[in-house]
Prior knowledge:
The complex is a heterodimer.
Chain A: E1 3-11, H1 34-63, E2 69-73, H2 75-84, H3 86-98, E3 101-103, H4 118-136, E4 142-144, H5 152-160, E5 165-169, H6 172-175, E6 183-186, E7 193-197, H7 199-206, H8 221-231, E8 237-243, E9 247-248, E10 251-252, H9 257-271, E11 274-277, H10 279-285, E12 290-292, H11 314-324, H12 327-333, H13 336-345, H14 348-353, H15 363-368, H16 374-393, H17 404-424, H18 429-449, H19 460-481, H20 484-492, H21 495-518
Parallel strand pairs in A: 1-2, 1-8, 1-11, 2-3, 4-5, 5-7, 6-12, 9-10
Antiparallel strand pairs in A: 6-7
Chain B: E1 2-6, H1 17-31, E2 35-42, E3 52-54, H2 57-60, H3 70-75, E4 76-82, H4 91-102, H5 128-145, E5 150-154, H6 156-169, E6 173-177, H7 181-185, H8 191-203, E7 206-209, H9 212-221, E8 229-231, E9 253-258, H10 267-280, E10 284-289, H11 295-305, E11 311-315, H12 320-328, E12 331-334, H13 344-350, E13 355-358, E14 371-373, H14 378-390, H15 392-407, H16 411-426
Parallel strand pairs in B: 1-2, 1-5, 2-4, 5-6, 6-7, 7-8, 9-10, 9-12, 10-11, 12-13, 13-14
Antiparallel strand pairs in B: 3-4
Helix pairs in contact in B: 1-16, 5-6, 6-8, 10-11, 10-14, 13-15, 14-15
Amino acid sequence: MKKTLCLYFQVHQPLRLRQYRFFDIGKDHYYYDDFANRSIMRKVADRCYLPANKLMLDLIKEYGKQFKISFSISGTAIEQFEQFTPEVLDSFKALAETGAVEFLAETCSHSLASLRSPAEFRMQVEEHAALIKKHFGKKPETFRNTELIYSDDIGAMVADMGYSAMLTEGAKHILGWKSPNYLYTNVINPKLKILLKNYRLSDDIAFRFSDHGWGEWPLTVEKYVAWLNVAAKKDELINLFMDYETFGEHQGAETGIFAFLRHLPARVFSHSKFDFLTPADVVAKHQPVAPLHVPFAISWADEERDLSAWLGNELQNEAFEQLYRLEQKISERNEKKLWHDFRNLQASDHFYYMCTKFFSDGAVHKYFTPYDTPYEAFINYMNVLSDFITCVEKPVEKELIKNRKSAKKSLTLHSEIKREEKINRNKPIIKIANTTFIMKKTTLSALAADGPLPGVTGQKPAVKKTAKKAAPKKKVVAKKAAPKKKVVAKKAAPKKKVVAKKAAPKKVVAKKAAPKKVAPKK
Amino acid sequence: MKILMFGWEFPPHIAGGLGTACYGLTKGLAKNGVEILFVMPRASGDEDESAVRILNASDIELFAEAQELEAFWKHVNFFEIGSNLIPYLGPEEFEALVNYNIKGIQHKNQVIGFGQKYNFSGKYGANLLEEVARYALVAASVALREQFDVIHAHDWLTYTAGIVAKKISGKPLVIHVHATEFDRSGENINQQVYDIERWGMLEADKVITVSNLTRNIVINRYGIAPEKVVTVHNAVDFQGYSSVNVERGVDDKIVTFLGRITYQKGPEYFIEAAAKVLKSYAGVRFVMAGSGDMFNRAIRRVARLGIASRFHFTGFLQGADVQRMFAYSDVYVMPSVSEPFGISPLEAMRSNVPTIISKQSGVAEVLKHAIKVDFWDVNALADAIHGLLAYPALSKMAVRCGLEEVNALKWDNAAFHVKKVYESAAIL
Lengths: 522, 428
């Protein structure tokens, strides 16, 4: 049987936060550093994504389906491609069209949700799968978690979602005497196959390629393929997982990394018995050898291969806890902007910046962080989070939107509502908008009152709950259900009546809103 | 190895960080097996008195608190020279102070080191530079009489003494730069002081600076060959340090500035940041502890900003009051414009106070668990203060890691490096 070489590349760019001072809390709700995000995306696109994609495309054209690769592209990266460098997205689409490339699923916002909230994790994975389907035409079959984080429980969740394979690190402390160069299965649900990164051979390219202090420098394809042969003497599968930014960004073009990549397939074909396969192919071809026990989460980061890069000190833990405390409220409010910010604030990168390990070990950490120290990273993040908390907890009101961008976004939000409205009813928009506003106000005051409402004391919690859940959709539905007359009536009527009325349309609302909740960000 | 060391103050009579640093350094050197002849100007400054005398053991007992230090004292001998040199003063300030004393206001046991016997004649001391020269002459006689391998001079007042000793004995000279004229005076430097400093650096076989910041100044502004200049960061000695418990009168959190209220300490940035924090964070008070030439200006600015009800001045603090101030504090801020090293953040961290320091301080080079801001970046400073007040996880971690960090800064290690410098100077 021919041996397998599985190449997988991670594509991710975080949405960096702007310098957010505490004076901004409660005043400015736009959190992102557009300049940095745009310019970094531009730079990485020019140095890495565009030339690397072109090279990959050339290789696939040259070798046909013999040369196969796989990617996972975070939703955050795709969003920024769309915003700043659409040509990169196009070049990935061109790769997708060759049929020799597999796109994997991950969490949309490159989050650590798998460690905290199964519900949130599932939503993000579904969101990402849909995004991949939309752009690359195929629903992903293989899953890779943020930073290759994996544990038995996470694997079981992923299997539940219908994925057949998952990628993770071939961490030494997990494997012991075992070899990473085989297919394994999840302990809880053996249907999920586990592909393990061969970190030595992967890091030879990703980290050591240009290191002049390394005994093996310079690394040539001849040497590397010889190593592959040695490594796979008894084993059957070698997984090379790395950041895609390795090509041209972490290892600059001047190091010869592109030439290495250019000539690797030819050498593999001529001097070894390897096939290039994608993870899905691997699962189809190879038999798993054993279940793999991973009781505690592992990742591909640092020497420890654990979570300590993101959740290793009290700063990170505090920020993480504070953030996920909001989950319930956000799903109750179910507003687009809140979801968007919530997801972006979950990105693992923010926690990585707060890592204090980089004091001792971490040229790598230093390389990736926009902050001088973890303390600064924490302060900035917590300032943003503090504002976000006020947004989540504050009743919906006309918000002062300073930033042009967010203004635009909320405009689109508004127009979407309008569009929906048009489809559903032929009533004049202005009138409806008017109604919405009044409706909102009254519900709000009832919610804000929070104390015992006259007349409904008995069922108060139920009423409150439905009211809250419905909140985001209220606008639309209220418009549908309540013609203008009602509003006037409400205004005039005594309080009791108002409450009663409110409760009534809300039930309808709740039902209608239900399907929306599944995929709130759509 | 025997070192002839020129210093000027020693506990308990110290005016600033230098005395503490010399004390810690000599202790560390003693542990590293280096013998020291310590020469320092003495407050008794009576011109009739013999210029040099060896301090006897009974005198030493006064400030050697522990028996365990015996080994140390075996290695260190003291000389005191009648002189009224005062550290940290420029010639103008010195003159003012001297005139002040002539008026007859005598302070007993003043921290600056004037003793009871001091009776100023006005014949020489009024001119600091003459005094420096006189000290050098006295130093020369010490150099003639004693045996030693290397000469070590601390800061500019003793550089001339070091140079003379070198000329007489032919032994290598190491000078130790704790501060430069640029740190003391900003850009308006005293040319004569600068010239002495530069002369010392040029004559020295090795120059030790307390931080890379100072090293750069020595290289760039004094034109000294980089290979001659070595950074040895200061350390801190918390032996016999006990934490103080204080009862608070107010529930508010307290943010403290502690130091001389002078241009180079950056008090105005502290005030502006305080105003910003107070605008949006209730339950905090600011304290400015210290005195200095910008004291009145600081008070005026606080009044004008309308924050005086939450911004307090304590005046000059010393001894136990300093510790008590730290114990009261929730955040300590050192926004120095220029600080060769800066020992007070270490004391704050030792007292479990999270600390913000300016990037323009030498101590920023050794501290990881202090928050660092540019002194001029008032927004960043305000933000850091707010962060430490509002996010408990942050101050908790800064306190815990900070304490570990300062406890690891040992004079023994610094002294080891200084010894290395001696050795390299000796074989030059």
